[in-house]
Design goal:
alpha/beta, Aspartate Aminotransferase, domain 1, 2 domains, 4-stranded antiparallel beta sheet, 11 helices, globular, binds D-malate
């Protein structure tokens, strides 16, 4: 009989967000009369319309595909040059950061890329992951066979967990031992924390000293309003020799449904073969994408390119301003209710300590049942997330104002 991948059997629960969806569905099935009142601040999914610049570019691209003379079939697997150049100029070189056009690999999402990147790393790497964490990093390592089984707390054997707590500002110190692959995400999902230049410099120095590679998820960089906070790992000297960066148009351009992102693999980034030879990873990722991926559709890449136009940039700024206005309201409401609150200042997530002694799934259930508000339980992001809950600021202003009012009834009951 054909063999399945046993590693999947090690996965503890369903993927977090479908699991939340399942629980919300069970609740609405049991209480259909309140289904319309539910406000979803769980998954960080955008709610505001797609920027006009992106829509116009997409429509024009569709029209091009409707003419024989301008029709296009398969595009380059790594992405069209027009978009790679727009990204390299707009996000990096225009800000004084060295990144070449052909170091940009266009994709359909950072979720996919942070999982797929494991294809180009060999077995036996030690993996360091923050806790709490975006669950994709953990689950994809389990699927790839890079871990043992999970213990009763849900921690997998073989992963080096780095607790992120209020005490360390949700940015872990570098480990005392050597690890090979390090996942960092700043501005952070789920805690909304940011890492300073000094903290990222320590990580880059650690990676250089230990031959490690940092997998840097910067999907939320556009929400940084404080200019002293790095938006890219490549703002740190030496990062081109030790880091891969993942970015997405999902949250800044409202592309969660449209799908477009990119990964930067510098040509100067080396890793070791099984025989100890140092080789660049760039050709491996390029080869991986050529074989397993056909990039993103032409209209979507034109839409992403349009986000770098003057109109596109202004429309992104308006979206960021809207969501960060929501984050401010949520932060203030939680603070006024006496909760210990983090994030929400340079990130679209507010991370709050649960009131009283309720645990984070208990808080999820209570918020759903009593306030009809979906939040994300901190424990869903890892053991160190227990005792916290996350509120996403991706919503309409009206809904966020209502969430603030409803929070008061639940938190006030403790
Ligand atoms: C989240 O809510 O953590 C994110 O929306 C998930 C994602 O971007 O895949």
């Amino acid at each position: 009989m054909a063999k399945l991948n046993d590693n999947y059997l090690k996965l503890k629960a369903g993927y977090l967000f479908p699991e939340i969806g399942r629980r919300v569905q069970a609740f609405t099935d049991a209480n259909p009369e309140v289904a319309g009142d539910i406000i979803r601040c769980g998954i960080g999914d955008v709610t505001e319309p797609l920027p006009a610049a992106a829509r116009d570019a997409m429509k024009a691209a569709v029209d091009e595909l409707g003419e024989r003379s301008s029709f296009r079939g398969y595009g380059p697997e790594q992405g069209y040059d027009f978009l790679r150049t727009a990204i390299a100029e707009g996000d990096y070189r225009g800000r004084g950061i060295e990144v070449a056009d052909d170091e940009i690999f266009v994709s359909d999402g950072s979720k996919c890329d942070t999982g797929n990147i494991l294809d180009i790393f060999g077995p036996g790497n030690t993996i360091a992951i923050t806790d709490p964490v975006y669950p994709v990093y953990v689950d994809t390592n389990v699927m790839a066979g890079n871990t043992g089984d999970a213990d009763a707390s849900g921690a997998y054997e073989g992963i080096h967990y780095m607790p992120c707590t209020a005490e360390n500002g949700f940015v872990p110190a570098v480990p005392n031992e050597k690890v090979d692959l390090i996942y960092l995400c700043y501005p952070n999902n789920p805690t909304g924390a940011t890492a300073t230049r000094e903290q990222l410099t320590n990580w880059v120095k650690y990676a250089q000293a230990n031959g490690s590679i940092i997998l840097y998820d910067a999907a939320y960089q556009a929400f940084v309003g404080d200019d002293s906070i790095p938006r890219s790992i490549y703002e740190i000297d030496g990062a081109r020799e030790c880091a891969i960066e993942f970015r997405s148009f999902s949250k800044n351009g409202g592309f969660t449904g449209v799908r477009c992102a990119f990964t930067v693999v510098p040509k100067t980034l080396l890793a070791e073969t099984s025989t100890g030879e140092k080789m660049p990873l760039h050709p491996l990722w390029s080869r991986r994408q050529s074989t397993k991926f056909n990039s993103v559709s032409y209209p979507v890449q034109r839409a992403a390119e349009a986000l770098y136009s003057e109109a596109g940039k202004a429309q992104i700024s308006a979206l960021i301003k809207h969501y960060m206005g929501n984050a401010k309201l949520l932060r203030e409401a939680c603070t006024a209710l006496g909760l210990n609150v983090f994030g929400g200042e340079n990130a679209p997530y507010v991370w709050a300590a649960c009131p009283g002694s309720i645990d984070s799934w208990g808080m999820f259930d209570k918020m759903l049942a009593e306030a009809k508000v979906v939040i994300t339980p901190g424990a869903g992001f890892g053991a160190a997330g227990e005792g916290f809950f996350r509120i996403s600021a991706f919503n309409s202003r009206e809904n966020v104002e209502e969430v603030c009012r409803r929070l008061e009834t639940v938190v006030g009951s403790f």
